[in-house]
Amino acid sequence: MTVVGIDTVAIVVSNGSKAIAWYRDVIGLPIAFIGPRDSNSDPSVHGTPEDPGHWIELGPGRPHTRVHLCEMGGTTEPGPTGITFITDDIQADYERMRAKGVRFLYPPKKMEWGEWLCEFVDPDGNEFDLKQPEDPSIWGS
Q: pTM above the 0.70 mark?
């Protein structure tokens, strides 16, 4: 038996419904799952984007990695997350996200190892990388 990948990565947010709107409408991640508000309630009851439960997942269908938006009672410690989002057109995504008000720490630049990279910040101050490989076709979809 071996580890085959990462299922979810938690991002601490101050408001679940605002975070859903931002990650869905600005980043473009589809809603995958919204659990019930109470962690001990009936698991068949789901929250909505306007009234999310305690477990929120956005991203592709499994087995691809999703983000788990984690509301921690209003307290966050923003800063670098170490999370990198992948794109096949960094310049287009940079322009699209800037048009939606996303703050970038610097524009896309080609790194010495050949990949393109820039950094952006979510509404809670969490910092992320946006990366395009030298040849996007090598990663597939």
A: yes
